[in-house]
Task: structure prediction
Amino acid sequence: MATVLGGREAEIMEALWRESPASVSQMHQALSRRQKVAYTTIMTIMSRMAQKGLLARTRSGNAYLYSPAISKEDFQRQVVEGVVDSLMEGFTQPAMSYFMERLSRQDETILEELERLIQMRRPPKQEP
Result:
């Protein structure tokens, strides 16, 4: 997650996907257990994440409560789609070649699953 988001942003998203909503104060306490971090840093990061559309916030008394604006699964899917779309637009052949090479280094069942998916998407052959 930290390769897509900044390290602190990833920590905040992971924490909020586990338990939300949370205030800046709650997030500061949770994150400060691992490493010292300023309250204002967490506040700034969370505000920016809300501006980016990653977090939703609602007012609760004098504070805001934050929660993820997108599920972890949807976020991961969007990241993968963006990366793959970008690669396929400019580097189709090398991307596909590497993808197949990478899959072949893993479990044989992954290649079998890929083959099954390809067959499902091919239109049926028409008899002459």
Observations:
- The chain has two domains: 7-68, 72-121.
